[in-house]
Design brief:
One of its GO terms (biological process) is SCF-dependent proteasomal ubiquitin-dependent protein catabolic process. The protein is an alpha/beta fold. The protein is 43% helix and 9% strand. Strands 1-2-3-4-5-6-7-8-9 form a nine-stranded parallel β-sheet, covered by helices on one side. Helix 6 (97-105) runs parallel beside helix 7 (123-132). The longest helix is centred in the N-terminal third of the chain and has 13 residues, at 43-55. It starts with a helix and ends in a 10-residue tail after the last helix.
């Protein structure tokens, strides 16, 4: 076979069917940063990557967030209407409502959205998520201090199937908003109210009584939470697996012990265990103590 015949029989990557082979079986295995690099190879590769981005179900910028521009973000998602998962965690330096609202508006099948740390967004983004993404199951809003009572109520009204929400350090929120969320989102399994001094026993008790399937609760730094609500939690939430109460100085072992006996993972050691650790630090070794006495 001569050289010309060999050239005719060669199959180049881009000769393979794009939507039937390359998109679902090849490009889906590449990290996003590699796809961005491929776009620069040629016009054909740019078109191929755009086809992939228009059909991808998961979009996670955690690996390249700070290194792409607003314009690139908008270009990458301008044709996508099938997203199920969107993570913006690492885009906190630049993403605003202007970039995010069009993406949310055309992706009504989103089930997971993580906006944690995106400080330049406003309540309008959360309202847009609540109105467009009625199948939402998981939402990350950690350190989004722009989240207020009205936007959270909108979320509760429209996303009743929510299973997990992270409200760490959303310091505008008070008991009334959390209680409203608990009454509307009965299928919550994971909830973080950490680092919010406004949260009291009222919120925890309402969550416990309405969200009976709760598995994980983070109350780290909720200084006004007391034993009363932890006892209510133990009574109403038989599926609880993890409880974080570090720096909750009004929560004592009397309310935690029943949960320990159910093998709930708690992030603070029992008093005797803490004392042994301190003693070991002072003495340099762990003394033998018969704990069965």
């Amino acid at each position: 076979m001569d050289e010309e015949a060999k050239m005719r029989t060669r199959c180049h990557l881009l000769d393979l069917p794009w939507e039937d082979v390359l998109v679902p079986h090849v490009l889906c295995h590449l990290p996003l940063q590699h796809l961005v690099s491929l776009q620069r190879v040629s016009k054909q590769f740019h078109s191929l990557i755009q086809v992939y981005l228009a059909n991808c179900r998961t979009f996670d910028l955690s690996s390249i967030g700070p290194s792409i521009s607003k314009e690139a973000f908008c270009s990458m998602l301008k044709d996508n209407k099938v997203l199920h998962s969107l993570s913006l965690q690492s885009c906190s330096d630049w993403v605003t409502d202007k970039e995010l609202l069009p993406v949310i508006g055309q992706n009504q099948h989103l089930q997971r959205v993580d906006m944690s740390g995106c400080v330049w967004l406003t309540r309008h983004s959360l309202v847009a998520v609540s109105l467009s993404c009625m199948h939402l199951q998981r939402l990350g809003l950690a350190h989004c201090e722009w989240v207020d009572s009205l936007s959270l109520r909108s979320l509760a009204d429209h996303c009743g199937g929510l299973q997990s929400i992270d409200l760490t350090a959303c310091r505008q929120l008070k008991d009334d908003a959390i209680c409203y969320l608990a009454k509307k989102c009965l299928t919550l399994r994971s909830l973080s109210l950490a680092v919010n001094a406004n949260i009291t026993d009222e919120s925890v008790e309402e969550v416990a009584k309405n969200c009976r399937g709760l598995e994980q609760l983070d109350l780290t730094g909720c200084l006004r939470v007391r034993n009363q609500s932890i006892r209510t939690l133990a009574e109403y939430c038989p599926k609880l697996q993890s409880l974080k109460v570090n720096h909750c100085h009004n929560v004592t072992e009397s309310s935690l012990d029943p949960l320990r006996k159910r093998n709930v993972v708690i992030d603070v050691e029992p008093p005797l265990q803490r004392a042994l650790v301190l003693l070991q630090d002072v003495l340099g070794f762990a003394p033998f103590i018969n704990l069965q006495i």
